[in-house]
Amino acid sequence: MLELHQLTVAYGQARAIWDVSLRVAQGELLCIVGPNGAGKTTLVNTIAGVLQPMAGRISMEGQDITRLAPHRFCAAGIALVPEGRRLFTGLTVAENLDVGSFLPAAKARRGQSLDEVLALFPALKAKLAAPAGELSGGQQQMVAIARALMARPRLLLLDEPSLGLSPLVVGDMFEAIRKVSAAGITIVLVEQNVSMAMKVAHRACVLELGRVVAEGLPQELMERPEIRKAYLGV
Fold this sequence. Notes:
The strands form 2 sheets. The chain has a 6-stranded mixed β-sheet, with helices on both faces. Strands 2-1-4-5 form a 4-stranded antiparallel β-sheet, with helices on one face. It is an alpha/beta fold. It has 10 helices and 10 strands.
């Protein structure tokens, strides 16, 4: 579904991603892990169209989308849940969800999508009329994921969804991610909680200083002592 070919991304003259090539199959959940500053957020933001690569190519379902305008990435089937959630805190939960179904194809199925995300996050049913800024951190993260799903993406990008959440909420969050994956949506997950991420992922990729240093099945990577110690924090 998604293919990155020799992707290089820079902030001015400072390169953050170096010649990264990756493939993500239809329905796969790929987890990207690595130390702080490895380039994980830069990579997902580039896949989402937030950043333009310096070199290389991004293909989505066989179509080259590298130079699309940023707002066209959503129409190409890609949705991003950014680090820090970035909700419209003065709007209600329902209004935030409506923003996710802005494009005509998603708007036509807004009712169905709303039913689906409320089934995934039942705690939001009683919060639809509440301002998003008044919700707990865990509930705000639910809204952020639900808003992205309202766009009915084929590829969902999740950047640090467990950041700042309590252990109990983190467990619920990863269970929701597992259900989204089981529904057939392709997912690229960036996550510092390596042990939880590895449990839900089909495949994992380790970044260091903007380069892919290891890639494979989660269990295989977790069994490699040098990978566990150097990159996975376990």
